[in-house]
Design goal:
Two copies of one chain form a homodimer.
Chain A lengths: L1 E6 L7 H17 L4 E3 L17 H16 L5 E9 L8 E9 L2 E7 L21 H4 L1 E4 L2 E7 L7 H4 L8 H7 L4 E5 L8 H16 L3 E4 L2 E4 L2 E4 L3 E3 L5 E4 L6 E6 L18 H19 L5 E4 L4 H14 L4 E5 L7 H14 L2 E4 L3 H12 L9 H22 L2 E4 L3 H6 L12 E2 L6 H15 L6 H5 L12 H4 L3 H13 L4 H5 L5 H13 L1 H5 L34 H6 L14
Helix pairs in contact in A: 1-2, 7-8, 7-13, 8-9, 10-11, 16-18
């Protein structure tokens, strides 16, 4: 059986554009003799469509598009993702669906059973699960009975989040009803090393149900999410027999054997892991965010530091060196080497570079505020003014020349709030906001090694990180060393471990409590942060929804003693020093 | 039967504080002879706890708190909301629960059946529905069999969103099993005139099941949501027999008659609707956000316009005039009357007022950018610099003196993006961001009439709204009149109507398409907006989750013609002019 895996880059909401692309791929698959071509989940509307799904007109338009596409289908079957209305007057209004298009008609409709509602996924907000997955998701293609499922239907596994979320396993239902091959239409976003886990998980499912599996993933960036492609096919023995490109559109033609073994015609692309895959994901995510928003070029501040250097390198790989503008904005506290390092980076990358000193604006702020600040000591307020002057200058560039401003903060500093709201946090996209500082270093080393030259200047890598908002400042004046910070961050944010749990692993209690406190009280900053590209299992932003005006304190020592807890009014936990910076 | 409705103001995450409050109210209810005291939904942890629920330690702490509270219960029953672990190893890890506390023990546990997952609600993200509501939610209190339910369990009604979302009606189950009274523990956030609908809905449920109903709501602000209290009791005939205060904590003692009629001891507080209730909700929401974040005072820019005037008035009512600082920041384009109107407002409110002209900073920006902007025409970039200078000055105040910055944009301007990111959008709380401009006027007129004097200066109300970023600018240079804008906004955002639907109601097609386009393309600004207090059925922010890099266009004319849609590449819909401002 010859199946085409149409790994396309869908733009959310762009029904007309996605529609044209689907018709194009159907034609190409037919030309290559495929019996059936499979598209990603919700391909007509792009994943994730979010609250566009609440617009009745949007659903109408997507249904009309499905009909249009079906009218172009002949001599091949197509399985196309779309949003279907729930025929039952009770329940969520929609189904997450695929249609089988055949002979110019919508031949049959099939609904998703398991609806992910965790992390970045909100599917219970919109969809009703398929009413009877047991019978309705089997389709006859030529002589083969195929079992159709959609994304999460493949993922009912306790390894994912230490727990099985669903009582049902749609694959077991399909298999028990006689399916001979499993076809899955997906939109599975990138997380570092997730593809390795996918292969392991899918392979174990295949071995359990003893039939081939074809998995078609979306590719491309949609806001925070980057879909890595990596569509894949297994034979009935759980062996990989074909794999599509990573981070690129691809039409993968797969000859699925009746038993096991790889037919010689199949293509198996390599996939990367680790920092290399993070870099590729960020390049794709940046490119798609910029172009899908309708921009052609980007601007960013180059401080001479490693975060802006990496962001600039990613932008150049995503858009080309002519589409990236760097601005150096030295202050009275900037070291000479900062501007030199920034200039050297711009030279290495071949991008435009302007220098716009902030001294004059900084002086004007100080003089303007002199009266009302009289008698106070210079501190945070004055430091932040410099970052905000830079933010305003960059936004003026963006407004004037129409290039999207990139913000360059990494996950470690955004976690602890070591960044200035409306200052260095200004920008339309936070390119590396889900990359911990230690990983930023690793990526830069990898990049230089891979390219065989110092794209990221050596001095930028070896010097002590500094915000340069006061004389001789370094990050480590305020923060523990990044390897320590990142280790605590990982446990607290990605693993949801508590202070006592982290401390029990040998970390200094005071440091742990301090870091957790900083993370918790920086929530208000992150609420106003630019969307950031997700690469870890738990990114700040849409997939981590924390209250701001809250007072949960770890540990709660007084609660352990009922009599004290009830009588004492104010001494619970640590004090809270509010700032807004 | 005497029931106490403990309408308390819970702080999210503040387990120790909520715990103390619950114990205090149990004591007071007992002192007044109540047989049972009922607390709001998730009272121990506050509603909505969001992703705090994903922290295992947080769940442990809340369970420990429940046990502590139970140890203090004697001579009265208490029904207390908390998060319970799901005993089934498969499914979501938690239940949204109440416990019946009796004689120093946790006597029984009861789980929510209907889990709202729409608008601002995300309960399917965390909770598994109660496994068998039919039997397990009945409790014996004295001689009465009471049916317990939690919030949404009362709301399975198609009037809410034009559709029944759930197949089950927990009240019908309770009633068919013999319940004699219905007790509901809730956290139901304020939306203008929602309480009128609650009374109608609850009363119709009561009439259907022919038994009294007691509904206990949370009160107070938690981030975007304001809980209005308004706890209420009905006799078996569907008549209101008691009602708690609105927007205040209250312990309401209700004698529930065996049949119908209001026992003389019951208290029925009045509730307000319309603009008066919006004003009260904003006062409470502001006060709680500021104090629960640990701040004592606020600062805001006073432009002489109506939005900042209303915001200042709300802040004074919330915190007292000594806790509010106003800053006037005239520019070279500010009219004389702007500063006069701002000063007059400050005088009327009795608040501190400083004048910090932005001329010097504005000049410094222009001079700094002169070189790189040479040969370009002044426009948006230059206008925004003024707004950003103001934002930075206000943030410097906030950083220096520790007062929370309030941002003052209304819903109409945030909808169409008539505001400057990192400029007038700076701030920790957007007080009136869910209030359309026409409603801002109504509230101000109501406020002046109610107070019997011109709190909001007459000139501020009658002059044409202006951003004053260029000479003689008014809002209506760029926007249609606000009554028209607000009418389209309401249909597009609150009702989810499409362009063709709105146009079919007699609105000018060009204006409709233009407004919708402005709303859609301002999504990236709103993503970085401060949290705003929700007062309408659909607020921007957490309850409206839109993609940014999307390309849905209404209408999609070319899609109506299949042959054209497929062949033409670029002429679909309107063009998109990206800006980042």
């Amino acid at each position: 059986m010859r199946i085409a895996l149409a790994q396309i880059n869908c733009t959310v909401g762009d029904i007309a554009g996605n529609c044209r692309k689907i018709v194009d791929y159907i034609g190409r698959a037919k030309a290559q003799g495929a019996e059936v071509v499979v598209f990603p989940e919700l391909a007509i509307i792009g994943y994730p469509p979010k609250d566009l799904l609440l617009k009745p007109q949007f659903i109408d338009d997507n249904l009309r598009a499905l009909k249009l596409i079906s009218s172009r289908v002949s001599g091949i079957d197509a399985i196309v993702g779309y949003a279907e209305r729930n025929a039952d007057p009770v329940g969520r209004p929609l189904h997450n669906a695929v249609a089988l298009l055949r002979d110019g008609q919508i031949f049959s409709r099939h609904f998703k059973t398991l609806l992910p509602t965790y992390d970045v996924f909100d599917e219970s907000r919109y969809f009703e699960p398929g009413p009877d997955n047991k019978t309705s998701n089997l389709i006859q293609i030529g002589g083969t009975l195929a079992g159709v499922s959609i994304c999460e239907d493949l993922w009912n596994d306790e390894r994912l989040i230490d727990r099985r979320l669903y009582h049902e396993n749609p694959l077991a239902n399909l298999s028990s009803r006689g399916s001979q091959i499993l076809i899955n239409s997906s939109a599975s976003p990138f997380v570092v090393d997730k593809h390795k886990f996918r292969i392991e998980l899918f392979s174990s499912q295949v071995k359990q149900f003893k039939q081939p599996l074809v998995y078609v993933n979306q590719v491309g960036g949609n806001d925070e999410l980057v879909f890595d492609g990596n569509s894949i096919a297994f034979d009935a023995g759980g062996n990989v027999i074909a794999q599509a490109k990573e981070f690129e559109e691809d039409l993968l033609i797969v000859d699925v054997p009746a038993t096991t073994g790889t037919p010689t015609g199949n293509r198996i692309e390599k996939h990367t892991g680790g920092v290399a895959s993070i870099y590729k994901a960020l390049v794709l995510g940046l490119r798609d965010y910029v172009t899908k928003c309708g921009f052609k070029s980007v601007v960013l501040g180059l401080s001479g530091g490693i975060d802006s250097a990496l962001t600039a390198a990613i932008a150049v790989d995503a858009l080309g060196k002519d589409k990236v503008v760097g601005i150096g904005m030295p202050s009275r506290y900037s070291s000479d080497h900062s501007v030199d390092d920034a200039r050297e980076l711009a030279k290495q990358l071949g991008i435009q570079f302007h220098i716009v000193p902030i001294k004059q604006v900084h002086d004007a702020y100080e003089s303007t505020l002199g009266e009302v600040f009289k008698g106070t000591e210079a501190g945070l307020a004055e430091e932040n003014l410099q970052a905000r002057a830079r933010g305003a200058i960059l936004m003026a560039f963006s407004n004037k020349f129409g290039n999207l401003l990139l913000t360059t903060g990494n996950k470690s500093e955004i976690a602890v709030g070591y960044c200035t709201l409306y200052g260095d946090m200004c920008g339309g996209l936070a390119v590396i906001s889900d990359v911990p500082k230690t990983t930023v270093y690793e990526i830069c080393e990898w990049l230089n090694a891979t390219r065989g030259r110092e794209i990221i200047p050596r001095n930028t890598i070896i010097k002590a990180p500094s915000a340069e908002l006061r004389p001789n400042q370094t990050d480590q004046d305020s923060l523990p060393p990044y390897p320590l910070l990142d280790a605590i961050l990982y446990r607290y944010v990605e693993l949801e471990e508590s202070a006592p749990q982290i401390i029990s692993q040998g970390f200094d209690p005071e440091t742990v409590v301090r870091i957790i406190k900083l993370i918790d009280r920086s929530e208000y900053k992150r609420r106003q942060a630019a969307p950031g590209l997700k690469v870890t299992s738990r990114a700040f932003g849409f997939g981590r929804r924390m209250p701001i005006a809250q007072n949960y304190q770890q540990p709660i020592p007084k609660l352990r003693d009922p009599d004290v807890a009830m009588e004492e009014g104010t001494e619970i936990g640590w004090g809270y020093e509010p700032t807004m910076d």
